[in-house]
Amino acid sequence: MGENLLGTYLKDRRAKLDPASFGLSGRRRTPGLRREEVAQRANISPTWYTWLEQGRGGAPSADVLDRIARALMLTDVEREHLFLLGLGRLPEIRYQASSEGVTPRLQRVLDALEPSPALIRTALWDVVAWNRAASVMLTDYGSLPPKQRNVLRLIFCDPRVRAAQFDWDSVARFVVAAFRADVVRAGAKAEPLVEELCRVSPEFAAMWRDNDVRSYGEGIKHLRHPVLGPIAFEYSAFAVDGRPDLGMVIYNPATAADAERIRALIEAKEVEAQEIEAKNTAAASSRARNRTALG
Length: 295
Hints:
Elements (H helix, E strand, L loop, with lengths): L4 H11 L19 H8 L3 H9 L7 H10 L4 H12 L16 H9 L5 E5 L4 E4 L1 H6 L13 H7 L1 H5 L4 H19 L4 H10 L1 H8 L8 E8 L3 E11 L6 E8 L2 H39 L1
Antiparallel strand pairs: 1-2, 1-5, 3-4, 4-5
């Protein structure tokens, strides 16, 4: 008989719980909760729970595993591991949009990727973090209200983004199909965004009705940049570990020459921003001096 990995894991998790934190007292021969206490918290039969730990009684249902996960106070990753051991698959996705944004560490990862544009987006394709290359080559996300930093809103509602695409219709169809796959995979509630876009864009409404599904994965993206002209990127999409609500997309310049052109443009924009800031500071100082003189 093979090793009972599910039973071993359940016993280990059970032993790590502190009975006092559940208001349970009394002397115990072994650490953690008793089997019947876990069963009571999970609202299942103590006999059935005992059989699970002993590797008897067959595979548990997803509902039983979910209740045991709550009873044992498992984290999301521990719950996933429980389902993999018990059923050989992950649990149904419980999408939870987070207002936390990204960590400084993840932002530093984006910054280190320059001159490759890179961004972090949610399952609803709201862009929540980006690097300077993305601002220069894709969209100046920092100049937009948070609600407008959505890939679909930009593709269908922003004339500048539309004009930057070599073949807008193909790009738009791909975006809609990949978005549909992402929101279903993540379990995200996309209805409000979809209804809004259907109202404001007949083209989106028609493409959404096609019910096409595609994987974002990786590929080639061609842009018509207002300064650098035609330019191509190799793009790849990645999951963000520990944040199922986020994904990362990186656009690598297709050639070394394009990478240098992007780097030079980023530096030029940085110098321009510094000059504007210096002028604004000087103007503010001048106004302050004039007010002092008049006072």
